[in-house]
């Protein structure tokens, strides 16, 4: 029995050929039949360039979520390929590492990003560049072949012959921050994705009449729900134009206005985004038709969540939890909020998933109300990190508590079960933190700072923030008789890291606090600031 991610779309295309699948902000709509035809054209074209997909399965995508980029992703999946989202806002150094680590040879790129990434496309590893949109004549790339969307549209639109794909084939690879400065490629299979999509459908019951807002970019795992749960239900996905120039808070106001105009029924995004929509997008004043909203990626401060609940009225709100490596593993419907502003629970474990709370020393499963690390296993859990076997072995471990081989993913999150069995979140195990919904390993930020001239000692500290989950602060000292301009340091880091990983403030100290063992005292830095 086939259990593949793209099959949820092809089945809907047969069932609902004339229903609208995707609608762009400018009003241009595409039916399921038209989207299927375009995805088949991409598949036929890619097959003509990829002679052995098993040897070269990975294809990069640098594009916002649009009708055409969704068709490209579907085409990649149909030929047995694996799509690898590349963050369009990330600098050359980070993206080139990902390209070399994954062996990408073909990239689909939105024409809007051609000039920014022309050096990236000139890498010797890249053989084929497929441009979504109009060719930018000012961009010259020498070491590969460019192909236009018009060439794709000229291809055969028939379904390609069904390949011998299995559910344990990789569907996509998402990259998170790595402690050595090298991003970690999280491998997600068709089984992982379908288990996630199927459970979300069972719990949230999307129908063909639902209108879902696209909010998450391809690089963020929430996009899998936006795209594939929508297409699975025969529903309509509404896409915002992220490349359109807008001043100040206008993009937030326009997004909320688009939700209102399209009478959206479903939104799934981060707490930071909801807070921004409340404070800067006019969410509380909008006349919305949302029946359900979900949040994930970071804890939602309860005082802010109360404001959201008041603004949305009867809309149901759900807290969704799960690291990228595990997809979704818990959920909690928020029917009422605590008067004392205590944190919202993680809630119940989803189907086909087991979560155990393991003591910090790893010797026993914790009793109710005893804190420990959350370990999980099930159909949504990743195969591991691409090309990083040792790191995978640290996280994917055999349980010492089962009588048969049972492998669990160590999430790095600490929490506990209360007397009723409900799970609660405490915090991260290590230096990996969430900022604006993005998971960041502080070691990668520090690795980017380390080569800067005249810097002596430094540490990047995450300070809890009600809106963004955390803000990053860089404390540093300089070499003797030397000085550092903070603006120069910030500019240096921007060449290596995406915007959300840049520290919010740079604070120069005369000396760094130390522990008794001679290490930088990070706790004192954090407490001293607070």
From TrEMBL:
InterPro entries: AA_adenyl_dom (IPR010071), AMP-bd_C (IPR025110), AMP-bd_C_sf (IPR045851), AMP-binding_CS (IPR020845), AMP-dep_synth/lig_dom (IPR000873), ANL_N_sf (IPR042099)
GO BP annotations, alphabetical order: amino acid activation for nonribosomal peptide biosynthetic process; secondary metabolite biosynthetic process
Single GO term (MF): phosphopantetheine binding
Annotated AMP-binding enzyme C-terminal domain residues: 444-519
SUPFAM superfamilies on file: Acetyl-CoA synthetase-like
CDD domains: A_NRPS
Any Pfam family: AMP-binding
PROSITE patterns in UniProt: AMP_BINDING (PS00455)
Any GO CC annotation of this UniProt entry: cytoplasm
Residue intervals of the AMP-dependent synthetase/ligase domain: 9-386
Transmembrane intervals: none
Name by which UniProt lists this protein: Iturin A synthetase C
Organism: candidate division WS6 bacterium 34_10
């Amino acid at each position: 029995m086939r259990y593949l991610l793209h099959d949820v779309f092809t089945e809907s295309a047969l069932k609902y050929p004339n229903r609208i699948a995707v609608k762009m902000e400018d009003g241009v709509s595409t039916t399921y039949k038209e989207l299927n035809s375009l995805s088949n054209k991409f598949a036929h074209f890619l097959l003509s360039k990829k002679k052995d997909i098993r040897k070269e399965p990975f294809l990069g995508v640098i594009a916002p979520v649009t009708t055409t980029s969704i068709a490209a992703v579907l085409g990649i999946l149909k030929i047995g390929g694996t799509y690898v989202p590349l963050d369009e806002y990330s600098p050359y150094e980070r993206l080139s590492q990902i390209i070399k680590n994954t062996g990408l040879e073909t990239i689909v790129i939105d024409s809007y990003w051609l000039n920014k990434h022309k050096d990236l496309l000139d890498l010797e590893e890249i053989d084929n560049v497929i441009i979504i949109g109009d060719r930018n004549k000012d961009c010259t790339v020498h070491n590969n072949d460019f192909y236009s969307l018009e060439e794709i549209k000229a291809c055969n639109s028939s379904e390609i012959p069904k390949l011998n794909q299995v559910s344990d084939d990789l569907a996509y690879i998402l990259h998170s921050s790595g402690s050595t400065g090298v991003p970690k490629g999280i491998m997600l299979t068709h089984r992982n994705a379908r288990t996630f999509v199927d459970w979300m459908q069972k719990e949230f019951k999307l129908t063909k009449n639902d209108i879902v807002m696209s909010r998450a970019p391809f690089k963020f795992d929430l996009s899998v729900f936006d795209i594939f749960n929508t297409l699975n239900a025969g529903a309509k996905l509404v896409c915002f134009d992220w490349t359109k120039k807008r001043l100040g808070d206008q993009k937030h106001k326009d997004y909320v206005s688009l939700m209102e105009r399209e009478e959206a029924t479903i939104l799934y995004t981060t707490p930071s985004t909801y807070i921004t929509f409340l404070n800067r997008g006019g969410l509380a004043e909008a006349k919305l038709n949302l029946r359900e909203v979900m949040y994930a990626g970071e804890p939602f401060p309860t005082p802010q969540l109360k404001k959201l609940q008041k603004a949305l009225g009867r809309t149901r709100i759900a807290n969704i939890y799960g690291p990228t490596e595990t997809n979704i593993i818990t959920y909690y419907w928020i029917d009422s909020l605590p008067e004392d502003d205590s944190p919202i629970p993680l809630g119940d474990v989803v189907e086909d998933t087991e979560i155990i709370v393991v003591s910090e020393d790893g010797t026993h499963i914790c009793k109710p109300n005893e804190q420990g690390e959350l370990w999980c296993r099930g159909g949504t859990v990743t195969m591991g990190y691409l090309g990083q076997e040792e790191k995978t072995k640290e996280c994917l471990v055999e349980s010492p508590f089962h009588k048969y081989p049972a492998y669990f993913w160590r999430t790095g999150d600490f929490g506990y079960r209360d007397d009723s069995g409900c799970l609660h979140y405490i915090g991260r195990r290590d230096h990996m933190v969430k900022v604006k919904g993005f998971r960041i390993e502080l070691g990668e930020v520090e690795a980017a700072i380390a080569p800067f001239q005249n810097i002596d000692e430094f540490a990047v500290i995450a300070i809890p923030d009600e809106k963004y989950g955390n803000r990053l602060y860089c404390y540093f000292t300089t070499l003797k008789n030397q000085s550092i301009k903070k603006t120069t340091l910030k500019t240096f880091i921007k060449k290596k890291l995406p915007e959300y990983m840049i520290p919010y403030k740079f604070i120069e100290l005369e000396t760094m606090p130390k522990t008794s063992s001679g290490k930088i005292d990070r706790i004192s830095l954090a407490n001293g600031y607070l």
